Automatic annotation (TrEMBL):
<protein>
    <submittedName>
        <fullName>Molybdopterin oxidoreductase</fullName>
    </submittedName>
</protein>
<feature type="domain" description="Oxidoreductase molybdopterin-binding">
    <location>
        <begin position="97"/>
        <end position="240"/>
    </location>
</feature>
<dbReference type="InterPro" id="IPR036374">
    <property type="entry name" value="OxRdtase_Mopterin-bd_sf"/>
</dbReference>
<dbReference type="Pfam" id="PF00174">
    <property type="entry name" value="Oxidored_molyb"/>
</dbReference>
<dbReference type="InterPro" id="IPR006311">
    <property type="entry name" value="TAT_signal"/>
</dbReference>
<dbReference type="InterPro" id="IPR000572">
    <property type="entry name" value="OxRdtase_Mopterin-bd_dom"/>
</dbReference>
Length: 263
């Protein structure tokens, strides 16, 4: 796989250099990035699409992320980002140990469905020991247990035109004068139906703790840490990501991170 990494870095390096050259051509260029028909923005967006296509071709649809042996779990999963959400809805659920929690699947589906924690725990289960890589430069090997997302999506019946899952979370990752910004993320349907993509309720053979996303957090094992949404409450099937947040498919993507976020 090292050849793949080198290729990807080289590719990213080239596109980043090209884009920054354009941006530096005039500082006021930044002001125009918000305009949909702006040239610089179009180039940046194309680079993102190209990255996605290049990665998809290199990785393939169903390649599995590496799984590790129990002896390779050397420490607990380091909590990062939100670790104890303070929204009223979340605190209410936490105080009753998530008894009334429900995960909802809506949008471009045949029927909107929602499941309690007990229902999710009684669906087909899978455990996997994988490595979580955060862009901040740390990794953790941990055992995640949960139910495959694909089975849950099938119970809702994904409509043919749907292209993405948007993952809505409870936590206010950022508080601003105009209100809370809630964490969200998204993936394509290939990642959603990948066999290692699970709605996780267990971590290292214990109940998933609040600091790591209780009661449910998604694992997309071939993607970086910011593509692993914690405190998940709703999965929305859509054909367009632009209506959400600032339109880039996730909280961190809205701030400039790559949408695909593959490893
Ligand atoms: N809802 C939510 N999900 C999130 C985050 C967050 O702040 N809120 N942070 C992301 C980032 S950057 C990382 S590295 C991982 C951290 O997961 P952990 O706390 O289980 O290690 O969660 C990701 N998912
Ligand atoms: Mo991260």
């Amino acid at each position: 796989m090292s050849g793949f990494n080198i290729n990807r870095r080289q590719f990213l390096g080239v596109s980043a250099t090209a884009a920054s050259g354009l941006v530096l051509a005039g500082c006021d260029q930044f002001d125009f990035l918000g305009q949909r028909d702006n040239q610089v923005r179009a180039v940046l967006e194309q680079a993102n699409v190209l990255t996605y296509q290049v990665q998809r071709r290199l990785i393939g649809a169903q390649t599995l992320a590496r799984e590790y042996a129990p002896s390779e779990i050397r420490q607990g999963q380091r909590p990062n980002g939100s670790t104890d959400p303070t929204t009223a809805e979340y605190m209410f659920l936490k105080n009753q140990n998530f008894a009334d929690y429900r995960l909802t699947v809506k949008g471009m589906v045949e029927r909107e469905v929602s499941f309690s924690l007990d229902e999710l725990r009684n669906m087909p289960a899978r455990s996997q020991i994988t490595r979580h890589d955060c862009v901040e430069g740390w990794s953790c090997i941990a055992k995640w247990s949960g139910t495959p997302l694909g089975g849950v999506l099938d119970q809702a019946g994904v409509k043919p035109g749907a292209r993405f899952c948007v993952y809505h979370c409870y936590d206010n990752i950022q508080r601003t004068l105009t209100g809370d910004i809630l964490y969200y993320s998204s993936s394509d349907l290939i990642d959603a139906y990948h066999p290692q993509t699970i709605l996780s309720y267990g971590l290292n053979d214990a109940v998933l703790p609040v600091s790591n996303g209780a009661p449910i957090r998604l694992r997309i094992e071939r993607a970086l840490g910011y593509k692993q949404p914690k405190y998940l409450h709703t999965i929305e099937l859509v054909d367009d990501l632009t209506p959400f947040g600032r339109g880039k498919g996730g909280y961190w993507e809205d701030l400039g991170y790559d949408w695909y976020g593959g490893i």
